[in-house]
Amino acid sequence: MRAFDLTPLYRATVGFDQVADLMDRALANDVGQNSYPPYNIEKTDDDAWRISIAVAGFSDDDLAIEVKDRSLQVTGRKAADETERNYLHRGIATRAFERRFHLADHVRVTGAAHENGMLHIDLAREVPEALKPRRIEITSAGKTDANLVEAKSVN
């Protein structure tokens, strides 16, 4: 049960809905979060990350990666095995799973690779030129343009 009500935050702010949504989602998802399959998130550069998910027993055809509304969803569905097996110990879980990762603004998936039982998903932040900081030149008020022609009133 959550003890926080974020409704006053929605009323008192304009444009910070994403922050409130993020806090609300974090508080809601932490309860009973499934830990299968295990994953790592590593920072590979200033604006690049890699998510590595342990997917032993899954082939490329069993895995799906989808990005929708700034949410990365990784699902794994193992095809039914037709051969009858008698396990003495079964420690490799190949049950179906779904992992979701919320992506920040301007973060996009640049690639994915499946090797040695690990699914690697590469992410990069690509900020548009219009949103990047830019330096504004400051001119003094005393300088005038040499090509400026004075306008005179005709009346």
TrEMBL record:
InterPro entries: A-crystallin/Hsp20_dom, ACD_IbpA/B, HSP20-like_chaperone. Coiled coil: none annotated. Pfam families: HSP20 (PF00011). Residues 30-141 form the SHSP domain. SUPFAM superfamilies: HSP20-like chaperones. Keywords: Stress response. Belongs to the small heat shock protein (HSP20) family. This is Molecular chaperone IbpA. It comes from Yoonia maricola. The lineage of its organism: Bacteria, Pseudomonadati, Pseudomonadota, Alphaproteobacteria, Rhodobacterales.
